[in-house]
Amino acid sequence: MTRSMTMTNTPPTNVLSTRIADELRRAILSGELSPGERIRQEELAEQFGASRIPVREALRILVTDGLVNMVSNSGAWVSSLTQDECSEHYQIRERLEPLLLRYNLGALTDADIARAGELVELMKQAPDLETFMRYDREFHWITYSRVETNSLTDLIEKLWNTTQPYRRVFMKLVRSGGIEVTHLEHELLLEAIKRRDSDEAESILHGHIRRTRIELDRHPEVFAHEFDKSD
Amino acid sequence: MTRSMTMTNTPPTNVLSTRIADELRRAILSGELSPGERIRQEELAEQFGASRIPVREALRILVTDGLVNMVSNSGAWVSSLTQDECSEHYQIRERLEPLLLRYNLGALTDADIARAGELVELMKQAPDLETFMRYDREFHWITYSRVETNSLTDLIEKLWNTTQPYRRVFMKLVRSGGIEVTHLEHELLLEAIKRRDSDEAESILHGHIRRTRIELDRHPEVFAHEFDKSD
DNA sequence: AGAGTTGGCATTGGATACATTCATCGCATA
DNA sequence: TATGCGATGAATGTATCCAATGCCAACTCT
Q1: Nucleic strand C near CB of residue B52 (< 7 Å)
Q2: Rounded distance, CA B5 to CA A202, Å?
Q3: Over the range B215-231, which residues count as b (16 or more CB within 10 Å of their CB) and which as e?
């Protein structure tokens, strides 16, 4: 996984398949491609001026990321989640992200924490949804990515990515209501981190994710998209 | 993921790449291929009487499973874990398998539970290590696979698979000592399941995995294998 | 003699061309 | 009219061939 979330700009590889994969991932995460949308190999190949071979490899890379589903002799689609599956992803996050935070808590620098504090404020003043989501992502990710290695990090990045389209729709719906609670939770989390209080930080983070999941569970309309979902 | 663990024999697909992937996965899980071992595309292609294209796709499938690592313009290796990474995988399992068990607890049939009981006994009499590991896997998997769907199931299967080589070596080392505790834990777990006691079952399972992890942490020699590890 | 450079070889990455599969639609038939 | 069969076409799967990369050893130059 390219760890795009960590803001470590991976130097542009000259391997075509990974470049195509990177571009596709960006398109999916930005919402240009929607969950359930069909992906045609030949179309993509033409679009990139390449043959279908690197396109296929790119698709397989995205399968690894959980962003694409491929079915033999049938085709590839942007991954889509049912409401239950999305809820499941959130429950996994509830249990894993506090663990990852604990891993990192001792290693966070003062600069990390200062930046996290800035981001809490920036989120409050975010002019639009995309900006807010970018800040939110950076805020949490700062607290996750100090310790390097870590298949846990990759795993959680995948979970963020696969749920991102739904989070976007969801937040568009409930933009005004409940956002205050989110800011409060961020502040509490930041305070716990400053105190290096693992248990408290874990607890707040768990509740933060859990609350979002429960709200999301109340909005089935988020998952009523127009495309076939075949996964 | 082919869900091989669930004993649902996937009918042999006539798509070459998936057949090659299945065979490779089997070879890795059985120990015929060791962590860190180099995989040469051409060699494999010849071995299967195929071209390198489906071999490459097979390797990408195994990357998705976490069983293979690929590096651009360099090659592919059977995934290997450092001791820290393995410990990390176990910590993830500690948090996720209890959740999966909870998901399934209400749906388990009497036949499931009966079979689980048989397996507890069979494990006590297992003549060799491989047999024991197969029973152990089936025992836990029965309690995990009643509820279908579930990316959680796939995720946990991956974690079992990637740690399997080390579990094998580890159990070979400590075969005699501590196995009694394992049997006891299995019995307690089974009892909790019979009572449909989610909290207790979660707790026992958590401790079961945790105890194994801590023992594993005490045996660095398990991770001293002869191959290059480049992940 | 030692360090940097260059060439070749082994291996992976990609393009073209062909084979195969699957879904769809039309048509014949009960 | 409903059903089932078969042709058709669009998409994916695979083989073969060629290009590009990277490693390693031999060689040159100082």
Answers
A1: yes
A2: 33
A3: ebeeeeebbebeeebeb
Looking at residue B3, what is its pLDDT? 43
For A107-155, how does the pLDDT look when each residue is reduced to its tens digit (9 = 90+)? 999 999 999 999 999 999 999 989 999 999 999 999 999 998 789 999 9
The amino acid sitting at B155 is L
Q: Is residue A44 exposed (0-12), middle (13-18) or buried (19+ Cβ within 10 Å)? A: buried
- What pLDDT digit, counting tens, does each position of A33-69 carry? 999 999 999 999 999 999 999 999 999 999 999 999 9
Contacts of A41 in chain B (CB under 8 A): none
A125 touches strand D (CB under 7 A): no
Interface membership of A72 toward B (CB under 8 Å): yes
Check the CA dihedral B88-B70-B30-B165 and report its sign: negative
- A229 vs B: CB within 8 A: no
Contact A54, A20 (CB under 8 A): yes
B94-113: b or e for each residue (b if 16 or more CB lie within 10 Å)? bbbbbbbbebbbeebeeebb
Higher-confidence residue of B158 and A148: namely B158
A36 neighbors A77 (Cβ within 8 angstroms) = yes
Distance CA A101, CA A193 (A): 9
* 3-class SS of residue B69: strand
What domains are there in chain B, each with its CATH number?
A: 4-78 (1.10.10.10), 83-223 (1.20.120.530)
Three-class SS state of A69: strand
Task: Judge: A96–B99 Cβ closer than 8 Å, yes or no.
Answer: no
Q: What is the mean pLDDT of residues A215-219?
A: 93
Q: What confidence category does residue B225 fall into, taking pLDDT thresholds of 50, 70 and 90? A: low
Tokens 């993830």: give the residue. B92
Residue B31: pLDDT band (50, 70, 90) is very high
Determine the residue type at B59: L
